Structures are given as C-alpha cells and as structure tokens.
Amino acid sequence: MKINEIFLSIQGESISTLPSPTKLGVGVPTIFMRTNNCSLQCDYCDTRYTWDGSQKEKGKTMNPEEIIQEIQKVGGPYKVVCITGGEPELQPIGEMHQLISGLKELGYTISVEASGTADRDFFHLADSVVMDIKGPSAGIKAMERTKNCMTYVNTLKCNDQLKFLIKGREDFDWMMQWLEKSGIIDADLSIRPQILVSPEFDDDGNNNAADVVKWILDAKLDAVFNFQVHKVIWKVDERAV
Asked: What is the C-alpha to C-alpha distance for residues 241 and 122, in angstroms, rounded to an integer?
C-alpha cells in the first residue's frame, strides 16, 4: 500500500455512532493512517499533497505488518485508528483486509473515511464508515465519479455516516435534493447512517458555519452540524494534526 503519513492527533470531525464505551468522534485521541493518491481531486481538497504529483509526496510503500507496527509505535496506548486519504479505496483490497483484520485482532477500533466511489469490499470490516458525498463545489470531475454512490448508500448502517461539505447555498440545496432522492431523509434513524453537514474553511481559516447552521435549522433537517475543530486549533494548512 502507498501510505502518505501515519500520525497521532485528536479526531477533528465526525461523531461517535457506536455503543458506549467504544469511542470515536471529535476530541478522541486517534491514530491517522493517510493513504496516497485520489481519483476525485476535489477543487476544495485540503490534502492535495496526497495526489498533486509532488515528488516527495509519492507515498511510502508499506505492507500490512509494517503499517501495524508503525501504528503501535506512533499510537502507544491509544486504540482508535482512522483510515483516510487521499482515497483508501484505491489501495490493494487484499492488503486492506489484512490490515483491518490485524488491527481488530489487537483490539483497535477502526473508522474509514472514503468517497464510496471505488472498490468498497473492506468497508464491512470497519466499525464505522464516513462516506463523503461530493456536491457542486467539489468540481465536475469529482461529481462525475461519485454518481454511483447513490446505490451504495443503502448498504450503510446506523454506525456509518454520510458527510457533506457545504461551501455555499448551491451545495446545501443540492444536498437536500440528493438526500430526498436517495430516500435517506425519510428512513428510520435507527437503521440509516447519520447525516453530517460541514462548513467550508478557506485558506485563512474563515468559515461559513453560521450560514450552514441556519440552513440546517430552517430546513428542519435531522442532521449533525460537523465542525472541523482541528482547523481551529491549528493552522488550516498544518500537516499531521
């Protein structure tokens, strides 16, 4: 697998959907494993270094055993791992199976953040999946590649999450139409994935959180406002946080 970085931080976004005392979500100490490469390359991407072609960002080739050893070294006593990217779905599926299964045997809780646009055969091994749905501000290329997400959403469970980034009103209106078309908005909350709605941060750390909160409440949407707290604690472009 091509690994961009493995580091320890706190989870800056998403929520816990697992029974207590298992912990996931904002503020929880988490070991992040970031894979290299992405087929979507969204216009607003905040991890462009995983796919923009920089020679020093080609990623380190590691097998599952090497990754587990690095996770143990970096994480110490912490037992929550977030597999993110880039796009984790582009990595060899067999090796992803080995990695997640090996971590689970060692007592780790696993979340996966991905787009749901490529091979998803390993999603069922994770404790929670956060699937990013790409709206208009992601760009035409990203939206074209996410058309097949609609059919996959029905396989997500109540432990999983759908995440929408809202850069402006166009994104919010598009999200509402998408949710209605998918049937998620009317589904039983006890069986459907949680809906996360996130504001957009610019390069200076400014965000449209107040607008997004207002739109959620005005729409009477059963969703969770999802704030990227790591972009408040640290600089927006700071790495390994």
From this structure: 26
Q: Are 40 and 146 in contact (CB under 8 A)?
A: yes
Query: For the purposes of burial, counting CB atoms within 10 Å of the CB of 234, is it exposed (0-12), middle (13-18) or buried (19 or more)?
Result: middle
CA angle 32, 105, 160 (to 5 degrees): 55
CA neighbor of 96 nearest in space, from 130, 121, 69: 121
Q: pLDDT by residue (tens digit) across 98-155?
A: 999 999 999 999 999 998 887 778 888 999 999 999 999 999 777 777 776 777 787 8
How buried is residue 24: exposed, middle or buried, by Cβ count under 10 Å (0-12/13-18/19+)? Answer: buried
The strand ranges marked E within 59-174 are 60-61, 80-84, 109-114, 128-133, 161-166
Q: Retrieve residue 97's tokens.
A: 């199976």
Backbone phi, then psi, for 58, in 5-degree steps?
A: -70, -15
Strands 60-61 and 2-10: antiparallel
Helix (H) or strand (E) holding 32: strand 29-35
CA angle 28, 195, 152 (to 5 degrees): 105
Contacts 24+ apart (CB under 8 A), 219-222: 219/172, 219/176, 221/176, 221/185, 221/195, 221/197, 222/185, 222/189, 222/195
Strand partners, 113: 130
- Residue found by looking up tokens 């706190």 in the block: 10
Span 66-85, pLDDT tens digits: 999 999 999 999 999 999 99
**Whole-structure pTM over 0.85, yes or no?**
yes
Determine the residue type at 71: I
Query: Which CATH number applies to 2-233?
Result: 3.20.20.70
